[in-house]
């Protein structure tokens, strides 16, 4: 659900937003900018999504194995 929010900004800032972002895209721009600062990620869900990515998991496993071999080679 979305909520309406009224904010006050300097006129120069508002004109800059309209010019750079576009008059119909300001709300989305501000939400995208603010979201990471006020919404904490649900790490369990994010880790689960990462684990379900088979290509990523394979690449991570291969990288870890290669790194482990390098560590053994350096010890000799």
3D architecture notes:
The protein has 76 residues and is mostly helical. It has 2 domains: 1-39, no CATH class; 43-75. It is built from 4 helices and no strands. It has helices spanning 11-20, 26-38, 43-52, 54-75. The termini are far apart. The model has no long low-confidence stretch (mean pLDDT 89).
Key phrases:
mainly alpha; single chain; elongated; 76 residues
Outline of the structure:
The protein has helices spanning 11-20, 26-38, 43-52, 54-75. It has 76 residues and is an all-alpha fold.
Distance between the termini: 61 Å
> How many separate domains make up the residues?
2
Number of E strands: 0
Radius of gyration: 23 Å
What shape does the CA trace take?
Answer: elongated
The number of helices is 4
What structural class do helix, strand and pairing data support? mainly alpha
Unreliable stretches: none
Q: What's the mean pLDDT score?
A: 89
Order of helices and strands: HHHH
Strand content: under 5%
Describe the biggest sheet?
none
In helices, the fraction of residues equals: over 70%
């Amino acid at each position: 659900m979305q909520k309406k929010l009224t904010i006050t900004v300097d006129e120069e800032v508002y004109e800059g937003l309209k010019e750079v972002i576009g008059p119909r895209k300001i709300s989305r721009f501000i939400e995208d900018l603010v979201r990471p600062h006020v919404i904490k990620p649900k790490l369990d869900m994010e880790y689960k999504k990462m684990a379900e990515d088979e290509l990523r998991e394979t690449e991570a496993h291969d990288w870890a194995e290669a790194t482990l071999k390098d560590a053994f080679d350096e010890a000799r």
